[in-house]
Amino acid sequence: MTQKLVAGIEPPYYTAVFTSVRPESPEGYAETSVRMQELVREIPGFLGYESARTPGGIGITVGYFRDLESLESWARHPEHRAAKEYGREHWYESYSVHIGKVERSYGYARD
């Protein structure tokens, strides 16, 4: 899970919201997750991500991208595509992806 929120991004930018249901710790998932985090950071226009999971297995990851081109570059990345395919076959009971354009953004942080 992410402990620090992504903040201070000047709109417009894009989000990819990945919501999934999977078992608590499927074999090979943690290693693949670490690899995906390494790879996405190499995508020009990637701005960060936030992630959370419930004890019941529902997970939400929000990726932030400067533009659609950078988001689509991530979607087409060969290792990312292979991980998605493997996940459908072995890890996920279900998932959904929502792509959005952020036109307004604000936050709060206690000092």
From TrEMBL:
Keyword set, alphabetical order: Monooxygenase, Oxidoreductase
Pfam families with a match to the protein in the record: ABM
Domain of life: Bacteria
Domain ABM, first and last residues per copy: 13-99
Record SUPFAM superfamilies: Dimeric alpha+beta barrel
GO MF assignments: monooxygenase activity
Protein known as: Heme-degrading monooxygenase HmoA
Lineage: Bacteria, Bacillati, Actinomycetota, Actinomycetes, Kitasatosporales
